[in-house]
Amino acid sequence: MNEASDKSHPEAVGRRVRGKWWKKLLLSLLALVVALLVMVWGTRQSYRVPEVPEAWELAATQQVMNKLAGSLLDSQGNVAAEAVIRLTPEEVNALLRSWLRTEQAQQARDGKRPAVAAVWKDGALFLRVSQPLFLGAVNVRARVVPGFSDKKVALQVGDAWVGWLPLPSGLVTSGANRAVADLAKEEKFQAGMAIFDKISVTASGELELRIYPRNIGELMKLLF
Amino acid sequence: MWQKTIAMIIMAAGLAVTAVEPGIFDRIPQTAAAAVYLRTEKLFRQPVLLRITDSGDIRRIRQELALIPWGLPDTIITIFGRNRGYAMLTAYPAGIDKLEEGLRTRYGKNPAWEIGRGSKNGLDFLSLTLHRERKRDKNYTLVFLAPHVVLMAGDKSPLSWDVLTGEYNRALGTKLETMAATDLVYGYSPEPLQSGFDPVGMFSQLKQCEFAVAVPSSGDAVVLRGEGQCADAAAARACRMQLQSFRQIMLVALFGADQQLFRSIDRVVTAEATGSRIRLRAEFPPAVLNGIRTYYEGKSAQFNAVLKQQLKP
Asked: Is A166 left (phi over 0), alpha (psi -120 to 50) or beta?
């Protein structure tokens, strides 16, 4: 009998063991990829807000406008150099819904954008994003505390998940801030941010906006 | 015999009516939630407005509109809803062939522009695409709703073809047609909350509204007036409060950097509620108009520079 074909020969045993080791590694990697896919891949979410604003939203939006208008002038009737507005969770949610409605309309038009849900609760923004992928979707959820000072946006992201997979908050926070820094190069973003001196969350969970009333004309740029 | 004569007169009148080609007032699509009529030529010829806008913008618009050989036609801006966008409706007596020829003469030599022609839902249209480097293309569609009525929509004012059902809102057309002779701009919305005028629902109490811009016979002032109908007096009072807030925000946004001008404009804009109706009125005298002109001519570049400076890292 040939030595190489003898299954009990030490070389043949070594080859078999090496072969099993690679197979095991490949199978483990494959299992890991499948497990990751199973954990990451989910069903598509639509996250729709009603097309017509509800009564509470209209009332809250009107309150925001009244707060803004009331803060713009000083006691002499001149345009104030600086003003502070505090928005209640309901008011923040009304503004968020207005933004989501616009996103929803864009999504209906081009069909490519992810579905987004956003709710302000307990002093933080709870975001849900569903990006369609093949027959399912990649669903992301995160808790974001927004901040803005010294002309820079600083987000604190926590409790972030992709499907069933938790993400390290430090990594997500730095990624989100890098993305915002890129966005901040855009003229429209700069125009929007020129209004603010500081954005922070109060202990009672309200969103505090310290604004420059003389710069609110920059908002007009966002319309064109 | 007299019955036959009457019948013939009625038939002849009917034929005469059907022979009249539909104009822009007959071609406001049924789904329009609001419309604004611009007496364009008259508006652009107003010395008082020309003085404000003679910093170049008006001239540029006129150059673009050189496609229109007989001057600037009256235009209706039709607004289809909060997510639908708007479209310009204009009379173009020269017809689609002449417009295509004009577009090809003006833009055809530039390879970045692509001009197409087609027909959809029984309507002829021209399409214009501007290909841009590292940016999304700009698209415009010019649809002939009648042989001499063009509807124009672009990317910023997306209009889907399902709006063009072939049914038209004659009541809205009649409303615009009967605007006062002195008005240069007149807008009407039978459902403001649906129109997209008010995307955040600031004036949700309004059931219908209209506004107009006029230059009185003296020719040196501009008058803006608006009127709205609410369900009852309480709704009108709430709406007036919103109008005051909106007025404040807009005036600060537009003129807030010049305290004196802001105060002088603030004085001429008034809002009041009477019963279930609310009224807005603003009369800009020559001194204020000159102030606005000086403000925009002299300050816009400076403001942009200040903004950029402020945002420097």
From this structure: beta
